[in-house]
Amino acid sequence: MLMHYFELTTTAYLLKNIAFNEVNEKIAQLINKAMLNDECLTIKHEENKFKNYVFDSLYPREEDKIYKADKIYVFRIRSLEEYFINKIKQLFPNTTTDYFKVITGEIKKYEQRPIKELYTITPALATIGKNIYWIPGDDIKVLIERMNANLFKKYKSYFEVSLNEEQLFFEKIKILNRKPLVYKYKNTNLFGNKFKIAINDDEISQKLAFMTLGVGLLEKNSTIGMGFCIEGGVEFGK
Questions:
Q1: Same fold: 4-111 with 117-231
Q2: Helices (H) and strands (E) in the chain, counts
Q3: Fold held by 4-111
Q4: Which of 169, 176, 177, 160 lies closest to 213, judged by CA?
Q5: Segments in the chain below pLDDT 70
Q6: Beta strand extents in the chain (DSSP E only)
Q7: Where are the domains of the chain?
Q8: pTM assigned to the model
Q9: Whole-number pLDDT of residue 237
Q10: Which class would CATH give 117-231?
Q11: pLDDT confidence of residue 236
Q12: Please, are residues 97 and 26 in contact by the beta-carbon 8 Å criterion?
């Protein structure tokens, strides 16, 4: 059976300026406020388990890294759960924060398809100790172990099926930044990185790669939109 995920593209009016490294925290606040206006989504929000959704940042990008008040931007939310995406779309028009007023939203369903490469467009975060995050120069084996273990746990949590964690779902990984990329979150800094990943062709690897598109890579996907992926990106060796 082929997998699928759902994507809500949201158009929103910005009420205040936001710095680029703070914008995902503000989007998260909008999503959380909407969820707390629904009984079922409140339970989901408060559960200590994988939430199975991820979101990206605002578009279009701003060259000076400041998103401007009184301008219109879009962002995407993805989830494996159709109910969640439909409900968020219904709740958004009546959910306003100090920074956002939602104008409209459009939902698309994506069926599983062959994936050759994944590219993170928001930084992906790997925790390697208490408040310690993997950065370029750290042991790449630790990053790979965290990446693999995290995704296998997400798969088991959602499908209630265990997989062989010794199998890697990718054959190559390229780090696209020299210095860690910083997101602001609750008066602290989260350090993430951008990756290009070449996916293996076998059935399990393809399922895991497609699931990554729907729920995000590594950690803090629903918390602050880290690890949002698309297909394609920079070629290896360049």
A1: yes
A2: 6, 14
A3: Alpha-Beta Plaits (3.30.70)
A4: 169
A5: 1, 233-238
A6: 4-14, 18-19, 53-55, 66-67, 72-79, 100-111, 117-120, 127-129, 132-133, 170-175, 181-185, 188-192, 195-199, 229-231
A7: 4-111, 117-231
A8: 0.94
A9: 43
A10: alpha beta
A11: 46
A12: yes
